[in-house]
Amino acid sequence: MKKLIFLVALILFALVACKEKKPADFTRLGYFTPYQNYMEKLNGKVESIVEKGYWAVTEGDTYIKGAKVTKHDFDSIGWTPDYKAGFDIDGDLISCSVIDENDKVVYGWNLAKENNILARAEYTQNDTVRTFIKITCNEVGKPVQFEVFNALADTLIQTMTIEGSDINDTTILQSHNFKGEAGGKGLAIYNEQGLLTDAESYNKEGAYYGGLKIMYNDRGFTSETTFFDKDKNVSGKNIFTYEYDDMGNWVKVICKDPDKGTALISERVYTYFK
Q1: Which of 32, 150, 175, 235 could form a disulfide with 10 if both were Cys (CB 3.0 to 4.6 A apart)?
Q2: Residue 42: burial class (beta carbons within 10 Å; 0-12, 13-18, 19+)
Q3: Are 136 and 145 in contact (CB under 8 A)?
Q4: Is 74 helix (H, G, I), strand (E, B) or coil?
Q5: Nearest one of 30, 79, 29 to 52, comparing CA atoms
Q6: pLDDT in the model for residue 260
Q7: 251 vs 229: CA distance, rounded Å
Q8: What are the angstrom distances between the C-alpha of 140 and each of 15, 18, 136, 193?
Q9: Rg of the Cα atoms in the chain
Q10: What pLDDT is stored for residue 24 in this prediction?
Q11: How far apart are CA 252 and CA 161, in angstroms?
């Protein structure tokens, strides 16, 4: 469970991780999921995840799980919603559906490969494909361009180009409208473990629009997030504590907002490829 951020608003339809040459020993939870601005790395070959959020209730010096957070609540407070996601044996996302408190699908992404390289992503709502993305990769399977289409009208909405990688590098995502005119730009900075440490957003005039800094615990999961406004002032912080499964992936997190004095609890259920 994370606070939703719009500092890379142009990544609404997002990137895709580079193609692995062999089955991954980790699974990237990021693009085309509610975690696309955080890019978690999960241990092992995850086949599916279901995540659900609850209000945290104070009990002594800790918190216990309270009432279910509804989809309306998530929208109101601006936090990542409940979802279920599925992956293939190579660690690539194949589907992700946002669900409400009754497990009803609100919207979802479905991804398809050609020659084992991701080539298309479709956004579906109310059983109708609303948007699709044509993905162009380079000779080593790294996505370098995304063409976003209105599926109902079959017209181009925008194009996004990508430079850089997610290992000890800065990824630059540049948007262009259907006329080819440059729009906003997003920067994502990764450390040597492939963990996102900083993200910045710029509008089409090149002015700084907002940012995010992430700190990690010794297991590689977010311990603290700091948010920055367009003037580069701190606009908020969140602090995270976890419980883990035998694979070392978190199954419960308590997220506290020290400024507001609020807390939420999220739980995950994983299945793994054997």
Answers
A1: 175
A2: buried
A3: yes
A4: helix
A5: 79
A6: 82
A7: 31
A8: 16, 9, 11, 21
A9: 18
A10: 59
A11: 36
- Residue of 79, 110, 42 whose CA lies nearest to 273: 42
Looking at residue 229, the DSSP 8-state letter turns out to be -
Poorest-pLDDT segment among 3-7, 31-35, 104-108, 222-226: 3-7
CB of 211 within 8 A of CB of 228?
A: yes
All structural domains of the chain with their residue ranges: 9-89+166-272
Name every residue whose Cβ is closer than 8 Å to that of residue 219 and which is 6 or more positions away in sequence.
242, 244, 248, 250
**Sign for the pseudo-dihedral over CA of 230, 232, 237, 243:** positive
CA–CA dist 175, 207 (Å, integer): 15
d(CA 191, CA 211): 17
Which has the higher per-residue pLDDT, 67 or 7?
67
CA angle centred on 56, ends 225 and 108, rounded to 5°: 70
Nearest to 266 by CA among 247, 246, 241: 241
Q: What is the mean pLDDT of the chain?
A: 89
Q: Is 247 left (phi over 0), alpha (psi -120 to 50) or beta?
A: alpha
What tokens were used for 131?
């948007």
| Interval 29-39: pLDDT, tens | 987 899 988 88
CA 69 to chain CA centroid, Å, is 19
Q: What is the pLDDT of residues 139-173, one digit of tens each?
A: 776 788 999 999 999 999 999 998 988 888 999 99
Token couple for 102: 């009754």
User: Taking the CB of residue 143, how many other CB atoms lie within 10 A of it?
Assistant: 22
101 three-state secondary structure: coil
Strand partners, 47: none
Q: Tell me the whole-structure pTM to 2 decimals.
A: 0.89
